Amino acid sequence: AKARSTVRTQHKSKDTRSPTSLWRLLSHSQSSESSSKMPETQNTADRKSPPPPVPTVTIDPSVTTLDMGNEKLVPIKAPINTAPKKTKGHVKNRLSTQIPAIPAAVAPAEGEGGDRIRLGICAMAKKARSKPMAEILSRLEEKDFHVIFFTDDMILNQPVEEWPVCQVLIAFFSKGYPLDKAREYVKLRKPFILNDLDMQDVLKDRRKVYDLLQASGIDVPRHVFLSKDD
User: Fold this and answer.
1) pTM higher than 0.70 for the full model?
2) pLDDT digits (tens, 9 = 90+) for 201-217
3) 120 close to 150: Cβ distance less than 8 angstroms
4) Strands, sheet with 74-75, edge to edge from the N-terminal-most edge strand
5) Spatial separation of the C-alpha atoms in residues 80 and 84, rounded to whole Å
6) Each residue of 65-80: pLDDT tens digit?
7) Plot region of 214 (φ>0 → left; ψ -120 to 50 → alpha; else → beta)
8) What string of DSSP letters covers 27-68?
9) How many CA atoms lie within 13 A of 138 on its CB side?
10) How far is residue 168's CA from residue 192's CA, in Å, rounded to a whole number?
Protein backbone atom coordinates (compact mmCIF):
# COMPACT_ATOMS: atom_id res chain seq x y z
CA ALA A 1 0.00 0.00 0.00
CA LYS A 2 2.83 2.37 0.76
CA ALA A 3 4.46 1.58 -2.62
CA ARG A 4 1.22 2.26 -4.51
CA SER A 5 0.76 5.57 -2.70
CA THR A 6 4.26 6.70 -3.62
CA VAL A 7 3.68 5.81 -7.29
CA ARG A 8 0.43 7.77 -7.33
CA THR A 9 2.06 10.79 -5.74
CA GLN A 10 4.92 10.64 -8.23
CA HIS A 11 2.44 10.42 -11.16
CA LYS A 12 0.47 13.38 -9.85
CA SER A 13 3.59 15.50 -9.46
CA LYS A 14 4.40 15.24 -13.15
CA ASP A 15 1.50 17.56 -14.29
CA THR A 16 -0.20 19.68 -11.71
CA ARG A 17 -2.49 21.54 -14.19
CA SER A 18 -6.22 21.06 -13.90
CA PRO A 19 -8.29 19.29 -16.57
CA THR A 20 -10.02 22.58 -17.43
CA SER A 21 -6.76 24.29 -18.29
CA LEU A 22 -5.66 21.33 -20.40
CA TRP A 23 -8.97 21.44 -22.32
CA ARG A 24 -8.55 25.14 -23.02
CA LEU A 25 -5.01 24.61 -24.29
CA LEU A 26 -6.11 21.78 -26.59
CA SER A 27 -9.04 23.75 -28.03
CA HIS A 28 -6.80 26.81 -28.64
CA SER A 29 -4.24 24.73 -30.57
CA GLN A 30 -6.98 23.19 -32.75
CA SER A 31 -8.48 26.60 -33.58
CA SER A 32 -5.06 28.01 -34.53
CA GLU A 33 -4.39 25.08 -36.87
CA SER A 34 -7.76 25.51 -38.60
CA SER A 35 -7.24 29.27 -39.03
CA SER A 36 -3.77 28.73 -40.53
CA LYS A 37 -5.18 26.31 -43.12
CA MET A 38 -7.99 28.61 -44.31
CA PRO A 39 -5.85 31.10 -46.32
CA GLU A 40 -4.27 28.21 -48.19
CA THR A 41 -7.67 27.02 -49.40
CA GLN A 42 -8.61 30.57 -50.34
CA ASN A 43 -5.38 31.11 -52.26
CA THR A 44 -5.80 27.87 -54.17
CA ALA A 45 -9.36 28.87 -55.03
CA ASP A 46 -8.17 32.25 -56.24
CA ARG A 47 -5.51 30.66 -58.40
CA LYS A 48 -7.96 28.25 -60.03
CA SER A 49 -10.54 30.93 -60.96
CA PRO A 50 -9.65 32.58 -64.32
CA PRO A 51 -9.55 36.40 -64.51
CA PRO A 52 -12.54 38.17 -66.06
CA PRO A 53 -12.20 39.05 -69.75
CA VAL A 54 -11.11 42.61 -70.51
CA PRO A 55 -13.30 44.29 -73.17
CA THR A 56 -11.50 45.83 -76.13
CA VAL A 57 -11.99 49.57 -76.58
CA THR A 58 -11.75 51.13 -80.03
CA ILE A 59 -12.17 54.86 -80.60
CA ASP A 60 -13.50 56.21 -83.88
CA PRO A 61 -12.95 59.98 -84.01
CA SER A 62 -15.55 60.45 -86.72
CA VAL A 63 -18.36 58.74 -84.76
CA THR A 64 -17.06 59.58 -81.27
CA THR A 65 -18.29 56.26 -79.78
CA LEU A 66 -16.79 53.47 -77.73
CA ASP A 67 -17.03 49.86 -78.96
CA MET A 68 -17.18 47.62 -75.87
CA GLY A 69 -17.48 44.31 -77.74
CA ASN A 70 -20.82 42.75 -76.83
CA GLU A 71 -21.87 45.85 -74.92
CA LYS A 72 -23.91 48.62 -76.46
CA LEU A 73 -22.27 51.63 -78.08
CA VAL A 74 -21.80 54.36 -75.53
CA PRO A 75 -21.53 57.91 -76.88
CA ILE A 76 -18.67 59.98 -75.57
CA LYS A 77 -18.12 63.70 -75.51
CA ALA A 78 -14.61 64.05 -76.90
CA PRO A 79 -13.58 67.40 -78.36
CA ILE A 80 -12.26 67.09 -81.89
CA ASN A 81 -9.45 69.48 -82.80
CA THR A 82 -10.32 70.77 -86.25
CA ALA A 83 -7.66 73.52 -86.27
CA PRO A 84 -5.08 73.13 -89.05
CA LYS A 85 -1.69 71.86 -88.03
CA LYS A 86 1.19 74.28 -88.06
CA THR A 87 3.72 73.54 -90.77
CA LYS A 88 7.13 74.92 -91.54
CA GLY A 89 5.55 77.29 -94.02
CA HIS A 90 3.48 78.89 -91.28
CA VAL A 91 6.59 79.38 -89.16
CA LYS A 92 8.48 80.96 -92.05
CA ASN A 93 5.60 83.30 -92.79
CA ARG A 94 5.37 84.27 -89.13
CA LEU A 95 9.09 84.99 -88.96
CA SER A 96 9.03 86.94 -92.21
CA THR A 97 6.42 89.32 -90.81
CA GLN A 98 8.71 90.13 -87.90
CA ILE A 99 11.52 91.39 -90.16
CA PRO A 100 11.25 95.16 -90.40
CA ALA A 101 10.86 96.88 -93.73
CA ILE A 102 13.79 98.69 -95.34
CA PRO A 103 12.55 101.91 -96.94
CA ALA A 104 15.99 102.68 -98.36
CA ALA A 105 15.90 99.43 -100.38
CA VAL A 106 13.01 100.65 -102.56
CA ALA A 107 14.23 101.51 -106.04
CA PRO A 108 13.85 105.22 -106.83
CA ALA A 109 11.63 106.43 -109.62
CA GLU A 110 13.04 107.70 -112.87
CA GLY A 111 14.77 111.02 -112.46
CA GLU A 112 14.80 110.76 -108.65
CA GLY A 113 17.35 109.66 -106.12
CA GLY A 114 20.36 110.59 -108.18
CA ASP A 115 22.09 112.18 -105.23
CA ARG A 116 21.55 109.26 -102.84
CA ILE A 117 24.46 107.04 -101.76
CA ARG A 118 24.30 103.59 -103.37
CA LEU A 119 25.00 101.06 -100.63
CA GLY A 120 25.63 97.51 -101.89
CA ILE A 121 25.05 94.44 -99.67
CA CYS A 122 27.25 91.74 -101.20
CA ALA A 123 26.50 88.71 -99.04
CA MET A 124 24.54 85.47 -99.23
CA ALA A 125 20.79 85.83 -98.80
CA LYS A 126 20.72 84.00 -95.45
CA LYS A 127 22.94 86.76 -94.04
CA ALA A 128 21.87 89.78 -96.09
CA ARG A 129 18.15 89.14 -95.54
CA SER A 130 18.45 88.22 -91.88
CA LYS A 131 16.60 90.10 -89.15
CA PRO A 132 19.74 91.67 -87.58
CA MET A 133 20.79 93.07 -90.96
CA ALA A 134 17.28 94.36 -91.59
CA GLU A 135 17.28 96.07 -88.19
CA ILE A 136 20.45 97.96 -89.16
CA LEU A 137 19.38 98.89 -92.68
CA SER A 138 15.90 99.99 -91.61
CA ARG A 139 17.47 102.86 -89.67
CA LEU A 140 19.01 104.41 -92.81
CA GLU A 141 17.32 107.49 -94.15
CA GLU A 142 15.58 106.87 -97.44
CA LYS A 143 16.49 110.31 -98.72
CA ASP A 144 20.23 109.67 -98.13
CA PHE A 145 20.77 105.99 -99.02
CA HIS A 146 19.70 103.53 -101.67
CA VAL A 147 20.31 99.93 -100.53
CA ILE A 148 21.05 97.38 -103.28
CA PHE A 149 21.07 93.66 -102.47
CA PHE A 150 23.28 91.31 -104.47
CA THR A 151 21.35 88.07 -105.07
CA ASP A 152 22.87 84.62 -104.62
CA ASP A 153 22.61 83.90 -108.34
CA MET A 154 24.40 87.15 -109.12
CA ILE A 155 27.21 86.46 -106.65
CA LEU A 156 27.78 82.85 -107.65
CA ASN A 157 27.08 82.78 -111.40
CA GLN A 158 27.41 86.24 -112.93
CA PRO A 159 30.77 87.91 -113.60
CA VAL A 160 31.77 90.88 -111.49
CA GLU A 161 31.47 93.20 -114.53
CA GLU A 162 27.70 92.66 -114.43
CA TRP A 163 27.33 93.38 -110.74
CA PRO A 164 25.65 96.71 -109.92
CA VAL A 165 27.90 99.70 -109.38
CA CYS A 166 27.91 100.89 -105.75
CA GLN A 167 29.64 103.68 -103.93
CA VAL A 168 29.73 101.85 -100.57
CA LEU A 169 30.03 98.07 -100.16
CA ILE A 170 29.29 95.70 -97.29
CA ALA A 171 30.64 92.22 -98.00
CA PHE A 172 31.37 89.44 -95.54
CA PHE A 173 32.17 85.77 -95.77
CA SER A 174 29.81 82.86 -95.11
CA LYS A 175 29.66 79.24 -96.19
CA GLY A 176 29.80 79.02 -99.99
CA TYR A 177 30.65 82.69 -100.45
CA PRO A 178 33.26 83.47 -103.19
CA LEU A 179 35.51 85.84 -101.28
CA ASP A 180 38.05 86.11 -104.11
CA LYS A 181 35.28 87.17 -106.47
CA ALA A 182 34.30 89.97 -104.12
CA ARG A 183 37.92 91.15 -104.07
CA GLU A 184 37.87 91.33 -107.87
CA TYR A 185 34.78 93.53 -107.73
CA VAL A 186 36.50 95.87 -105.26
CA LYS A 187 39.52 96.20 -107.57
CA LEU A 188 37.25 96.89 -110.52
CA ARG A 189 34.78 99.42 -109.01
CA LYS A 190 36.84 100.71 -106.06
CA PRO A 191 33.93 101.36 -103.67
CA PHE A 192 34.30 102.48 -100.07
CA ILE A 193 34.51 99.25 -98.03
CA LEU A 194 33.06 99.18 -94.54
CA ASN A 195 34.79 95.89 -93.67
CA ASP A 196 38.19 94.80 -94.97
CA LEU A 197 37.91 91.78 -97.25
CA ASP A 198 41.55 90.80 -96.84
CA MET A 199 41.21 90.60 -93.07
CA GLN A 200 38.36 88.11 -93.38
CA ASP A 201 40.92 85.42 -94.20
CA VAL A 202 42.43 86.08 -90.80
CA LEU A 203 39.08 85.60 -89.11
CA LYS A 204 38.81 82.12 -90.62
CA ASP A 205 42.04 81.05 -88.86
CA ARG A 206 41.97 81.22 -85.07
CA ARG A 207 45.76 81.01 -84.85
CA LYS A 208 46.11 84.20 -86.89
CA VAL A 209 43.43 85.89 -84.77
CA TYR A 210 45.33 85.13 -81.55
CA ASP A 211 48.61 86.29 -83.09
CA LEU A 212 46.99 89.55 -84.17
CA LEU A 213 45.48 90.13 -80.73
CA GLN A 214 48.78 89.50 -78.99
CA ALA A 215 50.60 91.80 -81.41
CA SER A 216 48.06 94.51 -80.61
CA GLY A 217 48.60 94.12 -76.85
CA ILE A 218 45.24 92.46 -76.22
CA ASP A 219 45.13 89.65 -73.65
CA VAL A 220 44.05 86.23 -74.88
CA PRO A 221 43.13 83.13 -72.83
CA ARG A 222 45.56 80.27 -72.39
CA HIS A 223 45.17 78.03 -75.39
CA VAL A 224 46.68 75.09 -77.21
CA PHE A 225 46.14 74.39 -80.90
CA LEU A 226 47.18 71.61 -83.27
CA SER A 227 48.52 72.70 -86.66
CA LYS A 228 47.81 70.29 -89.51
CA ASP A 229 49.16 72.45 -92.32
CA ASP A 230 52.33 70.39 -92.83
Assistant:
1) no
2) 888 888 899 999 999 99
3) yes
4) 58-60, 65-67, 74-75
5) 12
6) 445 455 554 554 545 5
7) alpha
8) HHHHHHHHHHHHHHHHHHHHHHSPPPPPPP-EEETTTTEEE-
9) 12
10) 5
